[in-house]
Amino acid sequence: MLSRALALRPRAAPLGVVERIGGLADGQIDALAEVLLDFGSAADLQHWLDSRVPS
């Protein structure tokens, strides 16, 4: 569902972010779902991924 929401808003996610989200474990997806609405920009999402998921 997260990937679909980001895909519907192409400017919301930098290149590769949707693919990285697709590779998250279930627990990581749950954690991301909890904080996603708190993000103010795509950079916040990128930082979250960078701090938790190796690229």
Account of the protein in words:
The structure is a single chain. This protein has 55 residues and is mostly helical. The protein is built from four helices and no strands. It starts with a helix and ends with a helix.
Shape field: globular
Number of helices: 4
How many runs of DSSP E, i.e. beta strands? Answer: 0
Strand content: under 5%
Task: Summarize the main sheet.
Answer: none
List keywords for this structure.
55 residues; mainly alpha; single chain; 62% helix; globular
List the SSEs and their pairings.
Blueprint: H1 2-8, H2 17-22, H3 26-35, H4 42-52
Q: What is this entry, summarized?
A:
Helix content is 62%, strand content 0%. The chain has helices at 2-8, 17-22, 26-35, 42-52.
